[in-house]
Amino acid sequence: MTAPRRLQIGLAVLAVAGGVVTVAVMLGGHHNVHRGVYALLTLGIAWGFTATGLYAWRQSPSSNTGPLMIAVGFSGLVKSLAFSNNGTVYAIASIFEVLIYGLLVHLLLSFPAGRLEGGVDRALVVITYINVTVVQVAAFVFSQPSREGCTRCPTNPISLDRSQAASALEAAQLDIAVALLGGVVAILYLRWRGSSPAKRRAVAPVMAVGAVTFVLLMTVLVVEQANVSSALADRLTIAEFASLACLPLAFFAGLLRSRFSEAEVTAAALTQANEQLEGELRAKVAELSASRARIVQAGDAERRRIERDLHDGAQQRLMALGINLRLARERVERDPKDAIDLLDGSLQELSEATKELRELARGIHPAVLTDRGLEAALRGLAGRSPVPVELVQTPPERLPAPVESAVYFVVAEALTNAARYAVANSVKVGVWRDDGHVEVEVSDDGVGGADPDNGSGLRGLNDRVSALDGELELDSCDGGGTVVRARIPCG
Fold it and tell me: Do 95 and 179 reside in the same domain of the chain?
């Protein structure tokens, strides 16, 4: 069992035991004719707030709502000990008699978040605590209830017996309390009115019962200060205690509604997030479908290009080479000189065919990339580029073959575009690894204005990079040069 759980069980046991002791003390008191009703209402207040506070504490251990409710419950028990016939117990209970209202102000202004929202709330709470502690102690020290109308009350053992000072302090305390309670009721109303419908439903029970409780308390204070009627004051005090006893139920309902409201907000957020993810997924699927279609089209176009290049280039040369070889064979004996000329021509055709096949193979996949790695392949590209190329940086180690191939063709396409369209004087190429990715950047100082929608080269590169879960980015402002960036995952 955890320490917080043991503490909660201990508080529950202490509340039950304290309630039994307090009821016994109240029923044995002689200075209130309504002690039976007060005893019953005290149990409702103490046990109701303690039980609701323990529930709130378990639901939100980091919130102050639960501990504040438990403190209200125990302060209700302490308040009721003022019914005791023992002078010391009576004095201690009377000093802390109104602490429950300071805790209630704190609780109501911080509900349901469990924290005070602004400077006005903090100021009200601080002033209330001062009024129910410092001013209360001062007022009680100068009072003697047995000489002020409560003939059955025990003698105040710490009284300085200065009735004029006591009256002034009591009047000041009552005035401060009425002003504070009015301010709290106004703030609660304005806060409820300005809340969202969901939050308004959640806090409505607490705001309603809490406002009624404070209005009754203000009325009691005004009636007592005016000395209108002790019977009326007694009835209003009982009504106030009854309202206090109903507050735990209102807080419990508010906590349940808050949880339902949070669940609704969470469900709405999840629904929105799910819709967003579905939209992103649909867009990704559409993008992948389009990319796959472009890859298939590019593959078909590439095969047709290779077929055309073979037919128009190497194939024609090889056919011519075959004809020359047959003619040379026929003329070896009767015209050796002519045969040698034919063989020389055949060797030239063979050299040209080999060169064309090498160029064709390089366009499909350069052998140097497989044999010697990315740096050598990029240096080969730089050496064949008509525009001066500065190879700024390359990874020192080999990369996975698909990544190396993608990087090579990104650089190759960027260099081709720089030579054909950019009117560039220089190009910089950088390749480096960063946080599990390979970064590629090719920048030129040309005219800019490149548009990937106007050609298939960059679209094909984007498809090639996207197939590896990478990203291709083009930055090309008119007159500002062109920068091609690629970021490819590389574990």
Answer: yes
Are 30 and 9 within one domain? yes
Residue range(s) defining the domain that contains residue 234: 3-273
Type of residue at 435: D
Nearest to 140 by CA among 176, 114, 115, 173: 173
| CA distance linking residue 360 with residue 378, whole number of Å | 17
Task: Count how many domains the chain has.
Answer: 3
Tens digit of each residue's pLDDT (9 = 90 or more) over 161-216: 555 665 677 677 777 877 887 787 788 788 777 777 767 777 788 888 888 887 88
Mean pLDDT of the chain: 79
pLDDT bracket for residue 440 (50, 70, 90)? very high
Are residues 136 and 109 in contact, defined by beta-carbon separation less than 8 angstroms?
no
Domain of 431, CATH number, reads 3.30.565.10
pLDDT tens sequence across 127-137: 888 888 888 88
Q: What number of other Cβ atoms are within 10 A of residue 381's Cβ? A: 23
What does the angle CA 448 – CA 449 – CA 450 come to, to the nearest 5 degrees?
95
384-405 per-position pLDDT tens digit = 888 999 999 999 898 888 888 8
Q: What angle do CA 158, 149, 97 make, to 5 degrees?
A: 50
Whether residue 155 is found in the same domain as residue 73? yes
Kindly state whether residues 354 and 380 are assigned to the same domain. no
The rounded distance, in Å, linking the Cα atoms of 100 and 98 is 5
Average pLDDT of the residues in 436-442: 93
The lowest-confidence range among 71-75, 318-322, 479-483 is 318-322
Q: How, if at all, do strands 389-393 and 427-434 pair?
A: parallel
pLDDT tens digit string along 443-454?
999 888 777 666
Cβ 107 vs Cβ 69: under 8 Å: yes
Among 275-279, 308-312, 327-331, 360-364, top mean pLDDT goes to 275-279
In this structure, what are the phi and psi dihedrals at residue 179, rounded to the nearest 5 degrees? -65, -45
Cα separations (Å) of 307 from 185, 310, 311, 354, 379? Answer: 88, 5, 6, 16, 29
Distance CA 129, CA 135 (A): 9
Same domain, 214 and 259: yes
Residues 190 and 151 in one domain: yes
**How far is 432 from 442, CA to CA, in rounded Å?**
12
Q: What dihedral do alpha carbons 131, 132, 136, 137 form, nearest 10°?
A: -110
C-alpha of 89 from chain center: 52
Residue 356 belongs to a domain with what CATH number? 1.20.5
* Cis amide prior to 112 (ω within 30 degrees): yes
pLDDT of residue 176: 80
pLDDT of residue 300 exceeding 60: no
Helix (H) or strand (E) holding 429: strand 427-434
**Could you tell me if 102 and 231 lie in one domain?**
yes
